[in-house]
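Hi V.,

Quick status before I head out on leave. The structure for the redesign project is tokenized and pasted below; the design run finished overnight.
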């Protein structure tokens, strides 16, 4: 863990990830200069087993589906040490993890998890157990977790150090509270520790011959009938609570048809021949439209070039993840809506009658229509749908402006 190569890799990773400062206020940019002066002392503390992590800073962020999620932000020095630990734990534990586990693992991704889920559905497992672990990262029992880490780690100094990170405490509003359970989300160690903790569940599901996909604490089990799914939910919930000492959220855990189930922002639908296709979760589409509304708000005074650049960054990033969806018609309809929102912005920018008439004429609209629509008292949104403005500002106009639309971006990414 303290080898030069491992430490340099950890430092580079922490700097690349950036992130907010912890309770000491040190930024990732300040870490490297600070280590040049103080590393000898830190190394001695780690060697002697007396290194003490600081409490994490409590941060609350909104969840996409509503509510909030509590994160813990360690100071950057602690993130650096945790990253160094994680880098030596992953090669020890990861090879033994289940092939149906995809979260926070090298060479694995959410897209792979969704494809495996689709394959299970296509092979006839059309009922899904949607397991919800109640506040998983806040409820992990330290003794149970450390017992699982100790199965493959026999270095007592390292085990003590990991436990100290778990018990470092939380600072919220200047008050430090002890950590008797849980592993704060936001730390470099949390992902690998969560996989170590849930590996026993993976093994139990595998022993029973169940088809499942797990991404961190997001778990889906695929079976052939509703009756079997109900039975699996009840029995697996008992295993989780008795063996892992975690709590299953009975209200949110449910049995649903595969066509209703969603995971990682995706859902599924069926086409002729029983083939399963991937769609975007309606909640994700709702969040997309909400964000685009913000970026195309008429009240946001910004140059069109800058606005388009901001929209493009968002669309390319969003579609980079959701390119897996087989829904070009949905993306095409969203593009129509986006172009209409862009047309109303342009219409407002023209402001006066003279500017509207002149610009419409320059864009190929006959004089009579240009005068008529320039004098229109209709609202921006109604005018944006008019055949005249659609003719004046067609797809080619926005392509010349550099606007990246969803469907063309999807096609480009799918063919890449």
């Amino acid at each position: 863990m303290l080898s030069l190569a491992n430490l340099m890799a950890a430092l580079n990773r922490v700097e690349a990830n950036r992130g907010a400062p912890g309770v000491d206020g040190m930024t990732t940019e300040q870490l490297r200069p600070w280590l040049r002066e103080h590393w000898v002392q830190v190394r001695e503390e780690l060697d002697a087993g007396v290194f003490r992590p600081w409490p994490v800073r409590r941060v609350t962020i909104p969840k996409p589906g509503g509510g909030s999620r509590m994160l813990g932000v360690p100071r950057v020095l602690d993130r650096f040490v945790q990253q160094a630990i994680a880098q030596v734990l992953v090669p020890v534990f990861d090879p033994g993890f289940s092939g149906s586990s995809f979260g926070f693992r090298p060479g694995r991704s959410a897209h792979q998890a969704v494809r495996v889920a689709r394959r299970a559905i296509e092979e006839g497992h059309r009922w899904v157990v949607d397991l919800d672990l109640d506040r998983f990262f806040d409820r992990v029992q330290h003794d149970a977790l450390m017992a699982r880490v100790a199965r493959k780690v026999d270095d007592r100094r390292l085990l003590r150090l990991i436990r100290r990170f778990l018990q470092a405490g939380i600072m919220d509003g200047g008050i430090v509270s002890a950590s008797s359970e849980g592993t704060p989300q936001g730390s470099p160690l949390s992902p690998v520790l969560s996989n170590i903790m849930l590996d026993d569940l993976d093994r139990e599901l595998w022993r029973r011959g169940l088809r499942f996909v797990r991404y961190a604490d997001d778990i889906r089990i695929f079976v052939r009938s509703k009756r079997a799914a109900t039975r699996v939910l009840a029995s697996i919930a008992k295993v989780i609570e008795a063996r892992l000492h975690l709590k299953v959220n009975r209200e949110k855990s449910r049995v649903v048809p595969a066509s209703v189930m969603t995971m990682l922002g995706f859902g599924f639908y069926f086409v002729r021949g029983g083939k399963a296709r991937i769609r975007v979760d309606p909640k994700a589409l709702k969040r997309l439209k909400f964000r685009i509304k913000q970026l195309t708000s008429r009240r946001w005074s910004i140059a069109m070039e800058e606005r388009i650049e901001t929209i493009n960054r968002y669309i390319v990033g969003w579609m980079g993840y959701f390119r897996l969806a087989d829904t070009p018609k949905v993306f095409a309809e969203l593009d129509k809506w986006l172009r209409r929102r862009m047309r109303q912005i342009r219409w407002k920018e023209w402001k006066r009658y003279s500017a509207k008439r002149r610009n419409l004429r320059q864009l190929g609209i006959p004089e009579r229509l240009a005068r008529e629509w320039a004098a229109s008292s209709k609202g921006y949104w109604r005018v944006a749908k008019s055949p005249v403005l659609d003719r004046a500002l067609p797809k080619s106009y926005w392509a010349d402006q550099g606007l990246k639309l969803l469907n063309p971006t999807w096609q480009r990414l799918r063919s890449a």
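Above is the designed sequence. The longest strand covers residues 56-62.

G. will cover questions while I'm gone.

Best,
W.
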